[in-house]
Amino acid sequence: MTSRTSLKNWPRFVFLAVLLLCLGSICAAPASAQQINEQAVDASIARSLEFLASQQQPNGSWRTDSWGDSTAITSLAVMSFMAAGHVPGEGPYGDQITRAVMWVVSLQEQNGMLINSQRTHGPMYSHGICTLMLAEVCGMMPDSDAPVVRRALERAIRLILQSQAYDKNDRHQGGWRYQIDSRDSDLSVTGWQVMALRAAKDIGCDVPADAIDGAVGYVKACGVRENRGFGYQPGNGPTPTLTGTGITCLEVCGAHHTEEAMGGANWLLANPLRERDSYFYYGVYYTGVGMYKMGGDFADNNRRHLIETLLPIQDADGGWTPTHGSERGAGRIYSTSLAVLALAIDYGYLPIYQR
Length: 355
Description:
two-stranded antiparallel sheet; about 0% strand; globular
């Protein structure tokens, strides 16, 4: 056995080599743990896509538990496949993606609205989600379908711009609400319209700069005093879900790292999203995108939190089941799609995820 005193007689370079090996082993441990974590995420996403694929209807749609076939739920499912690297017309899910996209397009109404015949109290929700999906998929469609999808997208964008232009009072200017002609606005509906406009502008659709500026103004108006997150409408208190929405809107609109977004991100770290929160899966998506775009520790800490929250509650068949009354009626396709969209952000496949 080597005595403690004999270490003094080692050549200095040998001692340094041993020290570096020890330090290297210590430093390698977190990387190994992170690698295992990412492998678990990859496996979780793969299982989720298998579940979603098994639930698609013969007409290409996906359904809600309470309201039947849904353009919005179908669009969320399409984007979840794309977020994991799958594209229309290619690979194991290519035909399913194409059928789903064309089903949504086939239901577009004369005024550009993307919604099926099953009416809801908030058609602009469905419309914004569907328009975002079309903007993300437009450049990936097979040549035979691409012109049809592009025309549908352009009509959908015109409707969003028309809706924003309706007369509203000063507190609600620049935003959107449930109906095309609503006279007030809320941050939740506004989030999807902002995402759709930004994605469409990125692929060359005509989106006036003042529409983006107006949306940014409304989002900032939903900020809570002293930059402590974002609320549903101006003057409301913050929630994790809406704070994620506000951060996302500002970042995708090019208002990077504003005081409102920075304050919201810090508030969100101190008040992270929990499964018991209202609209938890909605929040999973928006906190995921918003904090990812903030980057740095904001992105790393929030991603770790989402993984640690989502993976343990994934169902055996690969889906997720919404348990809070605010989302239960939307069903498992809704919650599973939003969970995948959040977990797959770091893959970077969806254009809207680009920093």
